[in-house]
Amino acid sequence: MFSLNILPKLTAQPLHGLKRTVIMAVFDAFLASVPFAFLYQIILNMLSTTPDMTFQFMMVGGCAVFMILRIFIARYIYISINLIGFDAGRKIRRRLGDHLRKMPMGFFQETDFGSVNNTLLKDIDLIERIFTHIYAPLIATISILIFFAIGLSITNWRLGMAMMSTLPFAVMAYLLTRQYARKWQDRMQRLIHGLNDAIIEYMDGLKILKSHRMTGQAFTKLDDLLKKTRQQALNAEKAAVLPVYSFNLLVESGFIILLLAMTWSWTGGTLSIPQMILFLIASLRFFKPLLSLSMFLAELNYMDLAARRVDKILHLPTLPQGTSQPELKDISVSFENISFGYSKTVLFSGLNLTIPQNKVTALVGPSGAGKSTIASLVARFWEPQKGRILVGTGKDRLDISTMELEYWLHHISIVFQTSYIFNDTITNNLKVAKPDATDTELKNVCNQAQLGSLIADLPLGMDTEVGAGGIHLSGGEMQRLAIARSLLKDAPFIILDEATASLDPENERDIQLAMQNLIQNKTVLVIAHKLTTICHADQIIVLEQGNIAEQGNHEQLMAKKGLYHELWSLQESSKSWSIK
273-314 and 220-268 helices cross at what angle (nearest 10)? Predict the structure, then answer.
């Protein structure tokens, strides 16, 4: 059964006004039940030898007063429960988003995107519905049933017991069959997540699939998954109706038992006509909410699963969060006995290196040597298993894990090999780095990033929409826009992760000019496969299988004739390759 206690845990804040709304829902249920007591008095009066018309009108008038009062209470409950529900959803989304922001990159690489996407969108919507559509009616329904059970049992306890005799068995049957249904629902949820991932993969690789005539049913991975999901969905739906059907069947059996009990009491002379009429009328009002209750419980079961999925993510460990915001006068970064690995694979063991302030440090080496991992550790996308990453020099060095994550990231700008461009204008894409940037600042960074001529040719200039992922821009233009964004941020530490790896020579020249403006008077960490782009770096660190194989400037490393010299020679010789 869905527990209300989990909602304040999800929001991490109290749900203001919920208790008051619950009390009003119970009071509304009481007002809905009282007219049946009046009805009993009306029946008694009508069947008496001398009916009192004044009394009749008073009872009818009382029913009318309660009806009018319920209109205002219902309006209050509807508005209040919607406000509480939407506010709870807002708080959960903000908390979940903040929690995901603090998760290590490993979570996003090891968790399927469909699962996270469903939790952010679908699951939180379901939780909102607990308040806005189901919670208040559920409280009212249960309250009405309790008031009816008490009132009818006082009138005739034998008939009251007969009417409710099958309810305990209905609840027991619901709980037993629900366990079976939940197993299918969990299985179905995993299939849906996998299907979402497969669809996203299919859309992303559509050009490749078309070129190999593998679209539609020819792409067997997606086709088989669709067929499997369809069959499993049918099985899950069959399992989902079992709790509802078993509950409803046993509940409605209570009406048959009530009729048998009434017949027995009538023949025994212990049942009066007013009681018989009252129970016949009231039983309809009693059993109808019970049938509705089964549907509420079925929906609550889905929502309970959604709440547990959200709660599971909120309890996943995040990166350690520091609290300090020290003034960083020296932005040198040092790795001190760093050990790190992915899953069970150890990449670094006791790694030590220094990235000096206002110098260009380049990381080179074969694929898988650990270049991008070092950059990710500096940016705190990952947390080392052992060791410390320090900023500063001498006695003033500080462990970056003791600082607020946002504060540390404020000092870093990153230009990746493929930078994401939002489906917005050029101006708003730049303002991601500095929301309060002036038009003059935006124009200056665009010129420094070699974007001036491009913007001048656009019909709307800086207000041009660039499409999702920058689809209306070329690869070189997207990279220059990413560099302009980093220029606007003006962080003292720059990370360039293969920023020119996949560009043509003309674009590479423009990018290099843009990067020269970006790295002036900055501490720079460059990751590059093209050694010609980093031969003027102040320090080149050559990595091999997670270890520092060589270190020095270009001339020193070439003189050693080691791994760097070998990589350089291979790239130089590849320039003469041709297809014959």
Answer: 150
Task: Give 119-157 as a DSSP string.
Answer: IIIIIHHHHHHIIIIIIHHHHHHHHHHHHHHHHHHHH-H
The reported pTM is 0.67
Q: Is 461 left (phi over 0), alpha (psi -120 to 50) or beta?
A: left
DSSP run (H or E) holding 82: helix 53-101
Residue 111 pLDDT level (bands cut at 50, 70, 90)? low
Which of the four pLDDT bands, split at 50, 70 and 90, describes residue 1? very low
89, 125 contact by CB (below 8 A): yes
Q: Please give the CATH architecture assigned to the domain spanning 6-314.
A: Up-down Bundle (1.20)
Residue 579 has which token pair? 């297809």
Contact 412/433 with Cβ under 8 angstroms? no
**Other C-beta atoms within 10 Å of 555: how many?**
8
Q: In the chain, which segments carry CATH 3.40.50.300?
A: 326-411+493-502+521-580, 417-490
Give the Cα separation of 543 and 352 in Å (integer): 12
pLDDT greater than 90 at residue 508: no
Q: Are 443 and 361 in contact (CB under 8 A)?
A: no
Residue found under tokens 């520091």: 322
Cα 16 to Cα 80, 81, 83, 143, 551: the distances in Å are 10, 11, 10, 22, 61
Residues 175-190: pLDDT tens digits? 888 777 777 777 777 7
* Of 336-345, 363-372, 439-448, 568-577, minimum mean pLDDT range: 568-577
Q: How far apart are CA 338 and CA 377, in angstroms?
A: 10
Topology of the domain comprising 326-411+493-502+521-580: Rossmann fold (3.40.50)
Side by side, which strands form the sheet with 523-527? Answer: 412-415, 493-497, 523-527, 360-364, 539-544, 547-552
DSSP states along 466-533: --GGGTTS-HHHHHHHHHHHHHHHT-SEEEEESTTTT--HHHHHHHHHHHHHHSTTSEEEEE-S-GGG
